[in-house]
Amino acid sequence: MFADWWTAAQWHGEVIARVLADRGVRPPARVLDCTCGVGTQALSLAALGYRVTGTDVSRHAVARARREAQARRLPVRLARADVRQIRAAVTGTFDAVISCDNSLPHLLTDSDLERAVAGIRACLSEGGIFVASMRDYDDLRRTRPGGVPITLHGEPGSRHGAGQSWRWSTDGEHLDITLFTFRERAAGDWVVSARETQYRALRRGRLSQVLNDQGFTSAEWLLPEQSGYHQPVVIAVADCPEPEAPADHPHRQPGPARR
């Protein structure tokens, strides 16, 4: 899906690191990537000096992330875990939890989303932040596009790429996506594969409400033109009944109270 995965991953990490740093979470803060996939954000944040734990429901994705981390000698803790049971899968608390690249819309019901968000909140230190990105379903539900065009990378004879076909439910609440991947073994000789999944077309307002209900405050959305990221990003603060940690906290820079 990328011309060069690690180059793309480093860009992802730099943008998310800026979002974290702007809210006082800087290396060597503890970060949990609770839907890490193959490690696009987790590994790149580790390369920037964050202490990262990554989890994902896919055994194959975690295995790939582990290989990539070992190849780059990055000290990332990786484990298989369903985000709905994330609190039981990790130890201690974190300065930040992230979930990027449209992972939360895999949770198709309010019950599953609430369980995941409650577990994420339990993994955060008081005043810690949650950062997530997802597609702009507020806009997509209005236009209901039919998919994502095929994009090819590389030189003729060794090209690779991907495209998507989207099928919307009648009410616009869900969409089935078929991901097609293409790899050229020799000039004109292609291997094509397809995988299917379903997403919830989750509106920003609904996710904000769930965050508020599950112990977060100050949910803020940044659109791509504000954050520089390729999807809308939400930043929410774990509700902090006590004053913020003192200025000499080892992982957070002094600043105004988070409430």
Task: Break the fold down into its secondary structure elements and pairings.
Elements: H1 5-22, E1 30-33, H2 40-47, E2 51-56, H3 59-72, E3 77-80, H4 86-89, E4 94-99, H5 110-122, E5 124-133, H6 137-143, E6 147-153, E7 160-168, E8 174-186, E9 189-200, H7 204-213, E10 216-222, H8 224-227, E11 233-238
Parallel strand pairs: 1-2, 1-4, 2-3, 4-5
Antiparallel strand pairs: 5-11, 6-7, 7-8, 8-9, 10-11
Describe it.
By secondary structure, this protein is of the alpha/beta class. It has helices spanning 5-22, 40-47, 59-72, 86-89, 110-122, 137-143, 204-213, 224-227, and strands spanning 30-33, 51-56, 77-80, 94-99, 124-133, 147-153, 160-168, 174-186, 189-200, 216-222, 233-238. The strands form 2 sheets. The chain has a 7-stranded mixed β-sheet, sandwiched between helices. It has a 4-stranded antiparallel β-sheet with strand order 6-7-8-9, with no helix packed on it. Strand 2 (51-56), helix 3 and strand 3 (77-80) form a beta-alpha-beta unit. It is globular. The model is unreliable at 242-259 (pLDDT under 50).
